[in-house]
Amino acid sequence: MILDITISLDGFVTGPDDAVQALHEWAVGDDRTEQDVEQLATLTAATGAVVMGRHTFDVVDGPDGWNEDMHYGADQGDVPPPCFVVTHRPPEHVRLTDRMTIVTTGLRDALDQATAAAGDKDVFIMGGGELGGSALRDGVVDKLHLHVAPVLLGAGTGLFEGSRVTLRIDEAATVVTRNAAHLYYDVVR
Amino acid sequence: MILDITISLDGFVTGPDDAVQALHEWAVGDDRTEQDVEQLATLTAATGAVVMGRHTFDVVDGPDGWNEDMHYGADQGDVPPPCFVVTHRPPEHVRLTDRMTIVTTGLRDALDQATAAAGDKDVFIMGGGELGGSALRDGVVDKLHLHVAPVLLGAGTGLFEGSRVTLRIDEAATVVTRNAAHLYYDVVR
Questions:
Q1: For residue A78, what is the domain's CATH number?
Q2: Which of A21, A95, A103 is nearest to A54 (CA)?
Q3: B64 three-class SS
Q4: Of B161, B166, B183, the CB nearest to A181
């Protein structure tokens, strides 16, 4: 499984007020570089299924979430991949009904279902911080992709709490732009 | 002022038990790469004076600390630069007496003395985490050099607590090796 997530340099996936924009400039901002766009396209093309937590679902399935203009859609000539939402609070309303599967039986069940749905492609855990952190602590992460935005937020939802993991960086894959250091690691077991 | 420090990917400058070795492999390990050695040599050559906290002093001035074989010495053909130790607990014994100045009146005083001593070269704050963190919070850091080791420690002395800072990465200076992502940032004011 691949945990692919955007964080601040101090390890937060969300922060106070307007931090979301600063974090995700590389992915959805007006100041994206060509290299940023390439990173996202490569990752998107490799994605067979996505596992996400409830907060992330609320964003991407919300009215300002995934649509034909961003992330998955026009750029890829494709709809979003199958998504598995790990939550103990099933949402009352789902917008992207043909894409979203609500899983109330935990992360491992969601990963199993995602693996079956992904075919030859990869399963991406896209966050948020709570789900990503528990995936790291549970030892189900094989690869860690970090898009590290050049900002210290000072507060927010952390990703790494309590995880002790040795990593091996994929030097060749690493790309640094003004918007993010795209760092690709393998988990060493 | 330049804050130049080695951290884990989860932002700790020290961690449990044997973590120090994993963190500093790039600088003092047997597995250093040519690029790692170049990074250290470039930084060392640019250093006019060093500001450090008491924990760091205890390490570098201790019996296993700086000597002719490492960091400053044979490689550089030089002795360590003038060092200014910020502490409220002056040490009873100083080994490198001609290099170490104990400053009990705070970080800003130490930076002033270091600036005077550095001449045309740069002043480096080399840590530890407490001193580096307070330098970031106090707004006296102009450049942040991070050597990010590929490990999540899960616990230790953090660097970034409470700092909210916007940064600009120096893409051209960035180098990634198997031992560290050497990331160079300017603080944006």
A1: 3.40.430.10
A2: A103
A3: coil
A4: B183
Closest residue in chain A to residue B16, using alpha carbons only: A164
| CA distances to A113, A144, A153 from B163, in Å | 40, 25, 7
Chain B residue numbers touching A165 (CB-CB < 8 A):
151-152
Q: Residue for token digits 């979203």?
A: A100
In this prediction, residue A52 carries a pLDDT of 97
Average confidence (pLDDT) over A62-76: 64
pLDDT digits (tens, 9 = 90+) for B156-187: 999 999 999 999 999 999 999 999 999 999 99
The boundaries of the domain holding residue A114 are 2-188
* Residues B31-60, mean pLDDT to the nearest whole number: 94
Contacting residues of A for B163, CB less than 8 Å apart: 10, 152, 154
Taking the C-alpha atoms of residue A45 and residue A42, their distance in angstroms, rounded to an integer, is 5
The minimum CA-CA distance between B172 and chain A, rounded to whole Å, is 9
All residues of chain B having their beta carbon less than 8 Å from the beta carbon of residue A176 are: 169, 171, 174, 176, 183
For residue A182 the two structure tokens come to 């795209």
The tens digit of pLDDT for each residue in B84-134 reads 999 999 999 999 988 999 999 999 999 999 999 999 999 999 989 999 999
**What are the residues whose beta carbons fall under 8 Å from the beta carbon of B17, sequence distance 6 or more?**
none
Amino acid (1-letter code) at residue A17: D
Instruction: Answer yes or no: do B163 and A154 touch at CB < 8 A.
Output: yes
Is A110 in a helix, a strand, or coil? helix
Radius of gyration of chain A (CA): 16
Q: What is the DSSP letter of A63?
A: T
pLDDT of residue B69: 55
- Total domains in the fold of chain A: 1
